[in-house]
Amino acid sequence: MNSYISTVSKLSEDVISRIKGFDRFNLTEEQATLIDELIPDENLRERYIKNGLCEVPPLVKELIDRCLKEDPSIRPTANELNNTFLKWYRPNNENDNAEYRKQCKEADDHNSLYFKSKTKTSNTLTHVLTSKRLDVKDLLERHSLTATDFSEIILKIQVTELNL
Q1: What SUPFAM superfamilies has UniProt attached to this entry (predicted)?
Q2: Which residue from 27, 64, 90, 102 could staple onto 31, CB 3.0 to 4.6 Å apart?
């Protein structure tokens, strides 16, 4: 477990709830001051400004950064993206995605510590939805076509419209 995870676990739910709506790329002076007050640890504050509230595996972050480059020649091709995803999700052998799996595990561990929810979900039934039964027989009788009606519609079509 890395030191970042143990540092992050010190953030309270109150701090997380107060900063989770911030756009870390465009912080106002007021938001930046609040972050300085709420996150006194300099390393943690820098990591928040760099990464936001959740940790993303570095391999994924690098790929995203390349995709967002202004110069199209730097961006990965569709084929390269496909090969990368196949390597990550359908490896030919265990070593193909070992680093990716390791980084994902670290990010998951970080995020699970970071976003521990203190609220428990309840399986208590709170709403019951019902629907009204439709009289389908009446509906079909009013809108059904007879064979005669259908024949009349077909006869109205001109032979020239059929594109034979």
Answers
A1: Protein kinase-like (PK-like) (SSF56112)
A2: 27
Q: How far is CA 142 from CA 137, 151, 154, in A?
A: 9, 19, 21
Supply φ then ψ for residue 86, to 5 degrees: -60, -40
Q: Splitting the chain (164 residues) into consecutive groups of 10 residues, what average pLDDT does each group show?
A: 42 74 78 84 74 78 88 92 88 81 83 52 62 64 60 61 61
The tokens of 141 are what?
A: 């009788």
Convert 66-87 to b/e letters by CB count within 10 Å (16 or more is b): eeeeeeeeeeeeeeeeeeeeee
What's the pTM?
0.42
Which helix (DSSP H) or strand (DSSP E) does residue 4 occupy? helix 3-8
C-alpha distances out from residue 3 to 43, 90, 97, 125, 150, Å: 10, 31, 24, 42, 76
DSSP letter string, 48-91: HHHH-SS---HHHHHHHHHHT-SSTTTSPPHHHHHHHHHHHHS-
Taking the C-alpha atoms of residue 28 and residue 158, their distance in angstroms, rounded to an integer, is: 69
